[in-house]
Amino acid sequence: MSDRGSWPHLAPALVRSGLVSVDFDGTLSPIVADPSQAVPGPGAVAAVEELARVCRRVLVVSGRPLEFLRRYFDDHLVTLVASYGLEIADRGEVELHPQAGSWVDVVRDVATASREKGPPEMEVEEKGLSLTLHYRRHPEIAGQVEEWAAGQAIRSGLEVRRAKLSVELHPPVQVDKGTAILSFVDDARLVVHVGDDVGDLPAFDALDLLHGRGREVLKVAVDGDEVPALLIDRADLVLDGPPEVPEFLLYLRDRALGA
Question: Tell me, which fold does domain 4-98+175-256 have in CATH?
Answer without folding.
Answer: Rossmann fold (3.40.50)
